[in-house]
Amino acid sequence: MTKIGVLGLQGAVREHVRSIEACGAEALIVKKKEQLAEIDGLILPGGESTTMRRLINQYDFFEPLQQFGERGKPIFGTCAGLILLATEIVGQDNAHLQLMNMKVERNAFGRQKDSFEAKLHITGVAEDFQAVFIRAPFIVDVGNQVEVLARHNDAIVAAREGHYLCSAFHPELTEDDRLTQYFVNMVEESKKELAS
Amino acid sequence: MSNIGTDRVKRGMAEMQKGGVIMDVVNAEQAKIAEEAGAVAVMALERVPSDIRAAGGVARMADLSIVEEVLNAVSIPVMAKARIGHIVEARVLESMGVDYLDESEVLTPADEVFHLNKKDYTVPFVCGCRDLGEAARRIGEGASMLRTKGEPGTGNIVEAVRHMREVQGQVRRLVGMSYDEIMTFAKELGAPYEVLVGIKENGRLPVVNFAAGGIATPADAALMMELGADGVFVGSGIFKSDDPAKYAKAIVEATTHYQDYELIAKVSKGIGSAMKGIEIGTIAPEQRMQDRGW
C-alpha cells in the first residue's frame, strides 16, 4: 500500500491523516527524520511556518527533507508547507527548503480577519473546489517549469513542478478530498517510476 | 466570490496552532523573543497574570499602544484579551486587526451574567472552560477555540490538570452514552443539547482545546499534552523565569515532543529557576480567576 507521511512537528496534522486515509492510502505522522525512509510521499501541513522551520532545524530535518525531494519522492505543501518549499520569500533574505522554483509572499491576503473561503477552479482536479484560506500566502512568481493549477482573482494559489505540489489554501479542512487524491495519484505514479 | 469569518476559517485558524505554545508578552521585545523561540502565537497584554494578581484593582483590555507595538513586531498571529461581556473592547481589538480574541477571566468581567455573542464577529475567539458544560456553552456562543482555565498567574499546574481531566472525562462519558441519555446530561451540565450531540457523533470537541493557567515548566507543558491538550498557553511562566529566551525554547521543545522524556530532561537542564508558585489554598475565594465566567 502507498504510504504517505505528514510532517508532525506542529499544525494541522490530524486532518491530513484523515484525508490521506479517505483516499485509500496509508498515513504516517513523521516526527523523526528516520521515518522518512518508510514513506513514498510527504505532506508538509499548515501551521506556523516560522515555528515549523525552527523545529525542522532543531531536529535535523532540514537536509533529510531536501534529500527526500531530490531523490524524486513527491512532496505536497499546504499553506505554511508551500512557504517551506519556495526558493524565494518576499521580504526575507533566506528561504527554507528551496525545492520549488517560485517566489511567495507570507500572509499575502492580510491578517486573520481577512481569512476567507472561495470556490476555485483547479486544473486537473476540480471546477468547484471550496478552498479555505487562513492567513494564507500566495505565489507571486513562478519559474518556467512550474505549472500554475489555480488562481484566486489574480493571485496564484496552487502549483505543481514535477513531483512537487503546493496550495496556499487548506484542502484538509473540508471533506473534499480531490486535491489530496491528486497527490496520492502523483505518489503512486512516482512509486512505479522509482521502482523501474 | 469569497466569504470571510466563516466557522471553517475561524476554527481552522486554531487548528493551525495545534502542537504549539502561545506565549503572553507585554512588549515588542518579549514578542520577538517568543517568536524566535518558536511560539505559534503571542498574547499581547499590559501585564502578565501574576502581575495582575499582585497589582489588584480592575484589570482591563491592554493599553492599545502595546497591542499595536506587538502587532508590528512579529509575523506570527497576535492575540489579545477582552473582558468577559465587554462588546466594545472586543470590537476595538477586532478593528485593530488582532488575529484572535480571548474573552478572558484573567481580566475583571464587564458583565456578570452574559458572555459575548461571538458568532457576530469576524475575528475568532478563544474562551476558558473548567468542564464540558462551560466548554459547550462557549461553543454555543460561537467560540472557535477553547482553553482550560487553570488558575492563571499561580505557576501551579493543579487547576489546569483538574480542568483538563474533567473536560476529557466528560467527553468520554458523553461519547459512550446512548442518545436517550444526552438531554438529561445536557440539563445537568447546563450545556446546549445540539453541541453535545455533535461531540457524541464526532467523538471529540468540535474545536481545538489548549491548556492554560499555571504552566510553569517544560514538564508541566508536556504533562498537559499527555492529558490530551492540543497545545498550551504559557502566561507568567516564561517572562517570570530567570532566563526567558532559554526557558521559552525549552517549553516549545517539551510541547512538541511531550513523550520524549530524555529530550525533556535535556532541555530542562541549565535553564534557571521557574517562577515562584502560589499554593491554590492560600488564594482568597474572590481572587480566584477561574470562578469568573458563567
UniProtKB/TrEMBL annotation, chain A:
Family that this chain belongs to: Belongs to the glutaminase PdxT/SNO family.
Reactions accelerated catalytically: L-glutamine + H2O = L-glutamate + NH4(+); aldehydo-D-ribose 5-phosphate + D-glyceraldehyde 3-phosphate + L-glutamine = pyridoxal 5'-phosphate + L-glutamate + phosphate + 3 H2O + H(+)
Binding site residues for L-glutamine: 47-49, 106, 134-135
Subunit structure: In the presence of PdxS, forms a dodecamer of heterodimers. Only shows activity in the heterodimer.
Gene3D superfamilies linked: 3.40.50.880
Protein name stated in the entry: Pyridoxal 5'-phosphate synthase subunit PdxT
Active-site residues per Swiss-Prot or TrEMBL entry: 79, 170, 172
Biological or metabolic pathway of the protein: Cofactor biosynthesis; pyridoxal 5'-phosphate biosynthesis
GO biological process terms on file: L-glutamine catabolic process; pyridoxal phosphate biosynthetic process; pyridoxine metabolic process
GO cellular component: cytosol; glutaminase complex
Presence of the UniProt keyword Amino-acid biosynthesis in the record: no
Its biological purpose: Catalyzes the hydrolysis of glutamine to glutamate and ammonia as part of the biosynthesis of pyridoxal 5'-phosphate. The resulting ammonia molecule is channeled to the active site of PdxS.
Keyword Lyase in annotation: yes
This protein's UniProt keywords: Glutamine amidotransferase, Hydrolase, Lyase, Pyridoxal phosphate
Xref: Pfam families: SNO
GO molecular function, one term: pyridoxal 5'-phosphate synthase (glutamine hydrolysing) activity
EC number(s) per entry: 4.3.3.6, 3.5.1.2
Automatic annotation (TrEMBL), chain B:
Keyword Nucleus: no
TM helices/strands, residue ranges: none
UniProt EC number: 4.3.3.6
Pfam families to which the protein is assigned, alphabetical: SOR_SNZ (PF01680)
Top-level taxon of the source organism: Bacteria
Sequence ranges assigned to domain PdxS/SNZ N-terminal in this UniProt record: 7-212
Protein's UniProt keywords contain Lyase: yes
Residues annotated for D-ribose 5-phosphate binding in this entry: 24, 153, 214, 235-236
Subunit composition and interactions: Homohexamer and homododecamer. In the presence of PdxT, forms a dodecamer of heterodimers.
Identification of the protein by name: Pyridoxal 5'-phosphate synthase subunit PdxS
Gene: pdxS
